[in-house]
Amino acid sequence: MAWIILVVAGLFEIGWAIGLKYTEGFTRLTPTVLTVASMVISIVLLGLAVRDLPVGSAYAVWTGIGTVGTALLGMYLFAEPATVIRLVCIALIVSGIGGLKFLA
């Protein structure tokens, strides 16, 4: 169950990271409220997950999910470059997340 909570926390991290773009420097109310809510939910869920998981692994997976999801959505939503090297680096992060989940 802790791993599921951690994955959901990572998804909320993606939400707040992408939400930052839509807040336009915290000048738009609705995106700002949703972004801050996503931040709080993400941190609370991470806190719940680390009750049962090693903090180092949980934090690495949480940030990895956030990093990969934000990078991919940045490419999709904001036309950020999807170069081969960038995609290879994202794949390495995914490999690390998998290693922490299944091997560590």
What do these coordinates show?
The model has no long low-confidence stretch (mean pLDDT 95). This protein has 104 residues and is an all-alpha fold. The protein has one domain. Helix 1 packs across helix 3.
Topology readout:
Blueprint: H1 2-23, H2 29-49, H3 55-78, H4 84-102
Helix pairs in contact: 1-2, 1-3, 3-4
Protein name: Guanidinium exporter
Subcellular location: Cell membrane
Family: Belongs to the drug/metabolite transporter (DMT) superfamily. Small multidrug resistance (SMR) (TC 2.A.7.1) family. Gdx/SugE subfamily.
The tally of helices reads 4
User: Based on CA inertia axes, which overall geometry fits?
Assistant: flat
Low-pLDDT runs: none
Largest sheet, if any? none
Rounded to an integer in angstroms, the radius of gyration calculated over CA atoms is 14 Å
Number of strands: 0
